[in-house]
Amino acid sequence: MTLLVVGASGFLGGEVCRQAVADGRSVVGTVHSGSVGVSGVVVRRLDVTDRAAVRALLAEVRPDAVVATPYRYDDWAVTADGAAHVAYAAAEVGARLVHLSSDALHAGRPSPYSDDDPPTPVFPYGAAKAAAETAVRAADPGAALVRTSLIVGEGSKQIQLCRDALAGRAALFTDELRCPIDVSDLAAAVLELVDGDYAGPLNVAGPDAVSRAELGLLVARQEGLDPAGLKTTTGAASGLHRPTEVRLDSARAVGLLRTRLRGVAELLA
Ligand SMILES: NC(=O)c1ccc[n+]([C@@H]2O[C@H](COP(=O)([O-])OP(=O)(O)OC[C@H]3O[C@@H](n4cnc5c(N)ncnc54)[C@H](OP(=O)(O)O)[C@@H]3O)[C@@H](O)[C@H]2O)c1
Fold first, then answer.
1. Ligand 1: residue whose CA is nearest its atom 15
2. 168-205: per-residue pLDDT in tens?
3. Which of 30, 43, 79, 114 lies most in the core, judged by the most C-beta atoms within 10 Å?
4. Cα separation of 269 and 265, whole Å?
């Protein structure tokens, strides 16, 4: 069984590679500008915005399954077009596809979002992730679309942002709620989905909804940092139009998967 991890140099992609190699899978991983820190992965360079290059790589590697993680926050061509290219090429070679989506495609509201809630994007990154889902579903209706939230764990840029805010170098929103998930739990869930046949969107996030500022306080407690230094703000005060309260209801994933999705209160206890 050959697994192709597109974006193996990324935070999640690297952990998917690590677990897949540990499972004894044959893993090919792609990089764009970075590198793969996991031995046992066959590394290939790929720009997902290059449709012909994506098709050529998939035709050569002929993977049984593909995990698609690439995105750039402010680059539609990578996040949306790139996802479409990977889905099209995966379908062409008959590979099982697990595509990484995001809670950022929702606008925010007081009640939790179910797996099947359609996207309601309010900013360009969310719109690109929504467009990616539509393109992936059109190219490959059997693909699993993993809607996830803030990815935490060792090396997380979300946790680094909290450290920066505790040092006064950044500010955390008090009015944005998310459901953080540990990178190892998410990677294990992704690999379970690789082996299954789940099709369509699936919320895979932690059970605890916290504001970014609350996440900062949890990081301060865990790392023994002074919480008084935490700099906070609101999206409204910053003049930004961003998703507000986004709680993902992951009950379906909890019922479907063996992987336990730990909450951030447990992870950062
Ligand atoms: N991080 C979060 O908190 C979070 C929350 C919700 C959803 N997600 C979703 O989860 C997925 C993984 O996130 P992550 O934090 O692990 O991402 P990440 O660490 O930023 O990694 C992004 C990956 O995309 C690759 N990439 C960028 N431009 C590319 C291009 N033109 N061609 C090919 N590859 C390209 C990067 O390659 P190089 O480094 O080699 O350039 C890297 O491997 C994303 O789809 C994201 O939308 C993340």
1. 11
2. 999 999 999 999 999 999 999 999 999 999 999 999 99
3. 30
4. 6
